[in-house]
Each structure stands twice: as structure tokens, then as C-alpha cells.
Design brief:
Strand order of the largest sheet of chain A: 6-1-7-8-15
Shape of chain A: globular
Distance between the termini of chain A: 75 Å
Number of domains of chain B: 1
Number of strands of chain B: 20
Strand content of chain B: over 45%
Order of helices and strands of chain B: HHEEEEEEEEEEHEEEEEEEEEE
Oligomer: heterodimer
Signal peptide (chain A): 1-21
Structural class of chain B: mainly beta
CATH class of the domain at 42-259 and 337-430 in chain A: Alpha Beta
Radius of gyration of chain A: 26 Å
Radius of gyration of chain B: 24 Å
CATH superfamily of chain B: Outer membrane protein transport protein (OMPP1/FadL/TodX)
Protein name (chain A): G-D-S-L family lipolytic protein
GO molecular function (chain A): hydrolase activity, acting on ester bonds
Largest sheet of chain A: 5 strands, parallel
CATH topology of the domain at 42-259 and 337-430 in chain A: Rossmann fold
Largest sheet of chain B: 14 strands, antiparallel, barrel
Helix content of chain B: under 10%
Pfam families (chain A): Lipase_GDSL
CATH architecture of the domain at 42-259 and 337-430 in chain A: 3-Layer(aba) Sandwich
Strand content of chain A: 5-15%
Distance between the termini of chain B: 84 Å
Number of helices of chain A: 16
InterPro entries (chain A): GDSL (IPR001087), SGNH_hydro_sf (IPR036514)
């Protein structure tokens, strides 16, 4: 009996031990601190990448996922106005009567088997689309102050200080300046001047991409050369000095390699014309008509031309790209010499940006290195590997140039990293998995029950009708 | 003749979750042994010897039954991932695993004994919320292996016994996680469920050169579990977009999958010594040969994400543990026991996944044995598992962060001799 008693004491000891439990840490999520940065009035200056342009157009459905919008949300900015545009948006295909690109099929059902053949086409405008007032609402279009997101698709470096409308833009006809800057209502002011009107306390500046991108995406034809590096340096320094007069803190981002985007890398230089063997395409290169090599880049815009026999791009009946009589036009090919010119421009611009920013104590978001690393090694995030591949890589939208909703989130995080480092801040990163979840339609029990908003959004995204909230 | 546009299409890979590792191995197969940290290969002097070292059953006279159960209550958490929020803290849902044992031994004559064991040598699992950041790596994972293990033991000469056994191994796995269909931004859930039967062997040797000293060796060659005809099921939301729904249906069909999983070789040696009349100590060294586990290949009957085979690299390392146990015999009826185990990780840092948040562990045990009467003995233990915090900085899955874990284990065994 005595020993049994001892056993009971032991058992009660065991119960005591069962209280052992895993200790939770004091901090279970990052709390926002903007550190030495002041985000009370945040303004973003830039081009399409800042505007939130993707899949060939600017639309409110995706402007909601612009990288400055992400930063504003993460930094606790209460007011961040954007020039939100009605579906299907304004962009590359507006003049041909359509807005944003849509993936109609991952693989053309009429050509089953073989290499998947996606069908991507812009969504036609619905009847009555108001091109004169494409804003999402009266409130947006008639906002009595400049937008916080002053990213203008197509803006070149020179435009930041100089362009006030389509006519004064570098291209001479970029109507996004009219949409974003809304002159003459704002007194004929530029991006820089409108930023100043907002008395910004913090700015992100990502500009200069178009000083080489247009050259690359036009196959070295329009314009015929990137902005000369001397001019780029002069303009960039002038822009930084002007922006610094606002007194705002800022970070600038450099320029990712324009020759490594899906627009350049998706179509192989050799294609099977139906004989079971891939043969190098015949191209109009800067050194004459010749067969392409792995060093030449065939642009995404060559898609509809390769094999065309209509006579629109060469003699009728001769498939384009397979015969010296009908080479792929130079506008859809970035040949190896042009690749070298574009790459050199990117390198020169980035060196310039690094030097000028450092001289002014401005931190640089090294998007170029980030993208090169992603291109080389992929970027796994919580089990999902992002790559620079078209359609399946997750980073790029359907135009092969601009990031996707998730791509912009990843870029926002690169900005946040730099801001946190520079300003001793702890702005939480965008939770990529949460965004993935947000983008995904919600269904309970595997069928039938929908989250109505999510459902409407998705139907809107894929059918071309405006989402209903 | 010519496709207008050919795009290189990188296939969506469904990487299968890892299905096992040393953290899934359960060495708590008897309350007496576990109270001494599982340092029992040399002593091997109750019915659980069928598991720990079957050579030991030659010393058990007559017919003996053993029934036991262990309650394993692990707690895991993860802080990260660093590329989402370095501080974000997620606790796995707490689970209770009750691996149970049944043993039988029968001494045919002075030299020859037969035994039988039923136990769960590999098991456990993990359960994370469906919407947690690591959902694409693991949500619900469970592995179970039931062993039906007859053994025969033979005493070659006084003090030297050998044994051999064969096991029918029933294996069950269930692995759940989320799959993201990137081109359309749709999250779905995937579930792999499979069961199979394999054959395993175990061998034991026990040598007692003196009354005080005992030496033991136990060896289990690796066991192949060929999972065939398992169910791979996908649950995606109906998006309402016909093209999207058709693509998802085509890319993620509910199909059958197969995979070969080799349970690792186990080699253990032990030495025990009776220090005083009442005090016995044992020290064991044990190794699980995971290094042969280089990759996991899952084959699908129908292509999933365009592929009929998914290869996941594993690159595990052999893991070993050191076990120390002591027993103090208070009187004829009551024994008190203590144990300590150092258990080393099998999964290299870059491959750690939340399905099995393993790491180096220290385990402390305490227990008792009480002889209720001539026939019945009851043993009990409590074991505290403390896992070293493990900070990953080179995850191949982009899932860096810190894993923490601990566990409470309780167990009781009854042995009845006729």
C-alpha cells in the first residue's frame, strides 16, 4: 500500500509536467513603423510601372495592385489617390478599339497537342465607352487635387519636368499625360509640379525605363536609338534636384534589363515550319537579311507574322520568316547588335542613377539586380517558384513587359526593403500568399457556393464586363 | 502546317510533400524502455523487447502478454517566412497521437522463444491552417505504419541470444496542401492519399558476459513501401469562366498516383551495467539511415500540371541518437527510472518543410514500474521533448524562418505473465 502511495505521488508529478507548453514569442507579426520616413503625404513619380499598367492597358482592376498602392497600404498611408480607369482600360490597343489583354485560352483548342498555343487578345470596348472621360467615377476624374500616383504610362525621363499634356510629351502624342495630369485644369503643370503641389513628405521615383524600352520593343526602330547616356545623366540629375526642392524623402529605382523580359525571350529563334525540325527564322537584321541565331531576340509582336502568307509582310504566298524573300521585319526582331546597344544603355543608365543618387544621399532600389537574380535562379516564395517566363512565370502580365498583380507586389517588397534599410523603418512586406488568396475566387465546399464579390471580379476579369461590387 | 505561335511552356510542377523523416519515427514502444530514454537494447527484459531487441525474449519464461499506449502531444510553430513577414508567427494545430502496442512472447523451451509484436514505428503528422502562409508546402500531413511482427529468438549458449523477425508493414500516407494555378490566379487544394503493405525484417543479439554487463545489437534493414494506386485529388473553385474551369479540369485531374518510399535502415547498439544491486544504467547509440533518401518520385496515371512524374529532391542525412537510461529498484515491487535522449536531425536546413518541422532534440524521461502482483506489472512514463529552435536561411522553397517545437509524451504499459 505504501508503494502504491508513492506511485500516486509520481503520477501527480506527471500531471505537473504536462503543463509544459510551447512558449509563444512576444512579437507575432511585424508592427508598422515608418522610422525616419514620413508617409503622411506619399507621391509616386514614374511611368507605366508606377501607374500599375499591365496586360497592355491601365484599368482600375489592376491599378488596385500598383506597386505604389501596395506601399501606401503597407505604410499606413490614409489617402492615396490614383487615376483609376474603367474596364477594359486605356492602352496599347485603344486605337484599334480594345482595352486590356485577356487570356482566352492557354492552349488553342483548335490546335490540340504539341506546344501549347495560347490565345491572347484585347477585350473590345463595350458600346458607349467614354474615351473622353475614362475615369472610374466622377469623383476620380474630378478630384480637385493631383493624384498621388503620378505614374504616366509611356513617360520618358525628360517628361517628368517637361510634359504637361500629350502634345508636350516626348513622343508628342502620349495621351496618358492628359489622363493623369488633367491640364489645363491644373495650370499646365508637369508630373514634378503636380507632385510639388501635393507637398509630399515621401516619394518613390522609378523613371528612365522608357528611354531604352521603346528602342528594344520596337526592334530598334522607334526610336532608332536609346537616349544618349550623357543626356540621360543631365536630365536625371536635373530631375533629382528639382524633386528634392519638395523637401520630401525619396527612394529611386533603377532599370531592369529590357532584353530579359518575356516580350523578348518567349519566341525561339528557330521554329518548326511543319517539317518536324526547328529551323532558324530568316530575319531582317541590322547587318542584312540572314538566319537568326541564339543571340538574336524574336519579339512577341512577331507572333502573328511568322508563317503569314497573306502578302502583308512580303510576297503573297511566301511564309514570313522562312525565306529570304520574306524575312521577319526588323521591327519585330532585336538582333544581336541591337541587343548589345540596349544592354549597354541599361548598364550606363544604372551606373548614372547609382552615381547621381549616391551624390545626393538617395537610396536606390536595385530592381535590375533583383530581376537578374530572379531570371537566373527563379524566386521561390512560400513554395511557389516565380520565374521570368511568359504566362507561367507569375511575375509578368500578358503583355510580356509589365508585371502582374503578384509581380507588382514582389516589386513593392523590394521598395519596402530599401525604405526599411534607409529610413530605419519596419514597414511590413506585402504578404504574397495573402494576395494570391485575394486574387483567387473563393468557393466553399468545392462547388456551388461563391464569395459573390470575388466571383463577380473574376467574371469581370475574364469576360470583359465590368465587375460589380 | 505551321503553328502561328509556339511558346515554351514551363510545366507546372506539383511537388509532392515529403512523406517522412526521423521526426516521424516513433521509438516509444514500451513504457519501461521509454522511461529510460529508450536505452533498452542491452537490457531488453520485458515484452517490448520484441520491438527493441527480440533476442531479449529468451529470458522471459512462459507466456506473456503486453498492452500499452503512448500519448504523443507535439506542439509546433513557425515564425516567418522572412519574405512575407519575418515576425509572423503561426502555430500548428495541436494533435494527439496514440500509438499503441500489443506484445506476446512464449518460451517453447530453455533455448527457444517465439514472440509477436504490433506497433506503429513511423507515424505522426502535422496540421496547419488551410490559409497559413506555408499552405503550398503543407496543410495536413499524416503518415502511419503499422507493424505486425512475429519473431523467433534462440539462446545459442548461456548469455548469448539471437533473434530474427519478419514484419508485415501496413503504410498509410495522407498529404494535403494548396496548389496555385498561376496563369489564372486560382488556389486549389490537393490531397494525396495512399496505403500499401511492405515486408520488413528485424534482427537482434544480446550478450551477457557477466551478471552485471549486458550488450545488445538491433538491426532493421530498410523497408520498401511501394505505394500504388493512391488517390491524387484536386479541389479547385469553380470560377465561372469556362476557359479557366476547362484548363483547371484538364491540368489537375483527379487521378491515381504511385510512389516508392523506403523506410530507413535502423542500427542500434547498447550496453547496460548493473552498478549496484539496485541501480542499472544503459547507454545506446542508434542510427537511422536516411541518407539513401535522395529524392521522392511520384508518378501519376494522368498528367498533373502537364507532367506524369514529379521528382522532389530530398538529400537527407543519416540521423543518429544517443540514449541514456537508469533504473533504481526501490524494493521488490517498485522501480524508478530516468532517461535522456539526444536526437539529431535528418533533414538538411534547405529542405526543411512545415510538413515535418524536425530538428535536433533533447528528450527527458521519468517513469516507474510497479509489480501489482506475481503476474501483473504496470509501467508508466512521462517524456518531455524539447526541440532546438531551428532558423532556416537557405530554404529551396523560399520559406525561410524559425521552426520551434516541443512535445509531451505519456505512456503506460501492462504486462501479464502466465
Amino acid at each position: 500500500m505504501k508503494t502504491l502511495f508513492k506511485g500516486l505521488i509520481l503520477l501527480s508529478g506527471l500531471v505537473f509536467f504536462s503543463a509544459c507548453s510551447l512558449q509563444d514569442p512576444d512579437i507575432t507579426s511585424t508592427t508598422l513603423s515608418t522610422g525616419n520616413a514620413d508617409f503622411s503625404r506619399y507621391v509616386a513619380i514614374g511611368n507605366s510601372l508606377t501607374a500599375g499598367y499591365q496586360s497592355g492597358a491601365l484599368t482600375q482592376e489592376h491599378q488596385a495592385y500598383s506597386f505604389p498602392k501596395y506601399i501606401a497600404t503597407q505604410a499606413g498611408v490614409t489617402e492615396f489617390n490614383q487615376p483609376l480607369l474603367t474596364w477594359p482600360g486605356i492602352g496599347t490597343y485603344t486605337t484599334s478599339g480594345a482595352g486590356i489583354l485577356k487570356l482566352y485560352a492557354l492552349d488553342d483548342p483548335s490546335t490540340p497537342g504539341g506546344t501549347p498555343d495560347p490565345i491572347i487578345a484585347p477585350v473590345p470596348y463595350p458600346e458607349g465607352y467614354n474615351f473622353a472621360f475614362p475615369y472610374a467615377s466622377q469623383e476620380v476624374g474630378f478630384l480637385a487635387k493631383p493624384y498621388n500616383n503620378l505614374g504616366v504610362p509611356g513617360a520618358a525621363l525628360v517628361d517628368v519636368l517637361n510634359a504637361t499634356d500629350a502634345a508636350s510629351s516626348a513622343s508628342g502624342s502620349n495621351s496618358f499625360f492628359d489622363i493623369v495630369l488633367r491640364n489645363p485644369n491644373f495650370g499646365g503643370t508637369s508630373q514634378y509640379q503636380q507632385a510639388k503641389m501635393l507637398q509630399p513628405t515621401f516619394m518613390t521615383v522609378w523613371i528612365g525605363n522608357n528611354d531604352v524600352l521603346g528602342y528594344a520593343t520596337s526592334g530598334g526602330t522607334s526610336p532608332a536609338a536609346p537616349t544618349p547616356v550623357d543626356a540621360f545623366g543631365f536630365l536625371y540629375g536635373q530631375m533629382l534636384d528639382s524633386l528634392m526642392t519638395t523637401g520630401a524623402d525619396m527612394v529611386v529605382a533603377n532599370i531592369p534589363d529590357v532584353t530579359a523580359i518575356p516580350f523578348m525571350t518567349t519566341i525561339p529563334y528557330a521554329i518548326d515550319p511543319g517539317i518536324g525540325v526547328a529551323v532558324p527564322l530568316v530575319i531582317q537584321a541590322s547587318d542584312g537579311i540572314r538566319q537568326a541565331t541564339s543571340q538574336d531576340l524574336i519579339l512577341l509582336t512577331a507572333k502573328s507574322l511568322i508563317g503569314d502568307t497573306s502578302g502583308a509582310y512580303g510576297p503573297a504566298g511566301v511564309p514570313v520568316g522562312f525565306n529570304a524573300a520574306a524575312p521577319l521585319p526588323t521591327s519585330v526582331v532585336l538582333d544581336k547588335d541591337e541587343v548589345a546597344i540596349a544592354s549597354q544603355a541599361v548598364t550606363d543608365f544604372n551606373n548614372t542613377i547609382a552615381t547621381l543618387a549616391a551624390a545626393r544621399g538617395i537610396a536606390v532600389v536595385d530592381v535590375n539586380s533583383f530581376f537578374n537574380d530572379l531570371k537566373a535562379n527563379g524566386l521561390p516564395i512560400a513554395g511557389l517558384e516565380f520565374t521570368a517566363d511568359f504566362l507561367t512565370g507569375g511575375l509578368f502580365s500578358l503583355d510580356g513587359v509589365h508585371p502582374s498583380d503578384l509581380g507588382y507586389a514582389i516589386i513593392a517588397n523590394e521598395f519596402i526593403k530599401t525604405i526599411n534599410d534607409k529610413f530605419d523603418a519596419t514597414i511590413p512586406f506585402v504578404n504574397i500568399v495573402a494576395v494570391m488568396d485575394e486574387l483567387s475566387p473563393t468557393v466553399l465546399n468545392g462547388n456551388a457556393k461563391f464569395d459573390k464579390d470575388a466571383f463577380n471580379n473574376v467574371v469581370g476579369l475574364f469576360s470583359g464586363s465590368a465587375p460589380q461590387k | 502546317m505551321l503553328k502561328k505561335f509556339t511558346v515554351f511552356f514551363s510545366v507546372l510542377v506539383l511537388s509532392a510533400s515529403q512523406v517522412s523523416a526521423s521526426g516521424f519515427s516513433i521509438y516509444e514502444q514500451g513504457a519501461k524502455a521509454t522511461a529510460m530514454g529508450g536505452a533498452f537494447i542491452a537490457q531488453a527484459n520485458d515484452v517490448s523487447s520484441v520491438f527493441y531487441n527480440p533476442a531479449g525474449i529468451t529470458a522471459l519464461s512462459g507466456l506473456n502478454f503486453g498492452l500499452g499506449t503512448t500519448i504523443i502531444m507535439p506542439q509546433f510553430a513557425f515564425q516567418g517566412p522572412t519574405n512575407i513577414d519575418p515576425n509572423l508567427y503561426t502555430r500548428a494545430n495541436e494533435q494527439v497521437f496514440p500509438p499503441s502496442t500489443f506484445y506476446l512472447t512464449y518460451q517453447i523451451n530453455d533455448d527457444l522463444s517465439l514472440g509477436f509484436g504490433f506497433y506503429t514505428m513511423f507515424g505522426l503528422g502535422s496540421d496547419w491552417d488551410k490559409n497559413w502562409p506555408g499552405r503550398q508546402l503543407a496543410t495536413q500531413s499524416e503518415v502511419q505504419t503499422f507493424y505486425l511482427n512475429p519473431v523467433v529468438a534462440y539462446e545459442i549458449m548461456d548469455g548469448l541470444s539471437v533473434a530474427a523477425g519478419v514484419s508485415a508493414v501496413i503504410g498509410k500516407v495522407s498529404l494535403g496542401k494548396s496548389v496555385y494555378y498561376g496563369p489564372r490566379n486560382v488556389f486549389g487544394e490537393s490531397l494525396l492519399e495512399a496505403s500499401t503493405t511492405g515486408i520488413g525484417f528485424n534482427f537482434g543479439l544480446q550478450y551477457k558476459p557477466t551478471d552485471e554487463l549486458s550488450l545488445g545489437v538491433t538491426y532493421r534493414p530498410n523497408t520498401l513501401l511501394a505505394f500504388e494506386g493512391g488517390d491524387a485529388t484536386f479541389d479547385f473553385p469553380v470560377t465561372g469562366d469556362a476557359a479557366t474551369d476547362a484548363e483547371i479540369a484538364a491540368l489537375f485531374p483527379n487521378t491515381k498516383g504511385s510512389a516508392d518510399l523506403t523506410l530507413p535502415t535502423l542500427l542500434g547498439v547498447g550496453i547496460s551495467y548493473q552498478l549496484t544491486k539496485a541501480l542499472t544504467a544503459e547507454f545506446d547509440w542508434m542510427q537511422l539511415g536516411w541518407s539513401s533518401y535522395d529524392e521522392l518520385v511520384v508518378k501519376f496515371d494522368d498528367p498533373v500540371g502537364g507532367k506524369t512524374e514529379s521528382v522532389a529532391e530530398r538529400k537527407y542525412e543519416d540521423s543518429f541518437s544517443l540514449r541514456l537510461g537508469v533504473q533504481y529498484q526501490m524494493n521488490d515491487d517498485l522501480a524508478l527510472r530516468l532517461g535522456y535522449v539526444r536526437d539529431n536531425k535528418a533533414v538538411p536546413d534547405e529542405r526543411v518543410e512545415p510538413s515535418l518541422p524536425g530538428g535536433n532534440r533533447d528528450l527527458y524521461s521519468v517513469g516507474f514500474g510497479y509489480k501489482v502482483n506475481k503476474s501483473l506489472t504496470v509501467d508508466g512514463f512521462y517524456m518531455l521533448l524539447l526541440q532546438e529552435d531551428r532558423t532556416i536561411t537557405n530554404s529551396v522553397d523560399g520559406f525561410n524562418g524559425t521552426y520551434t517545437g516541443m512535445g509531451n509524451l505519456f505512456g503506460v504499459s501492462f504486462q501479464y505473465g502466465l
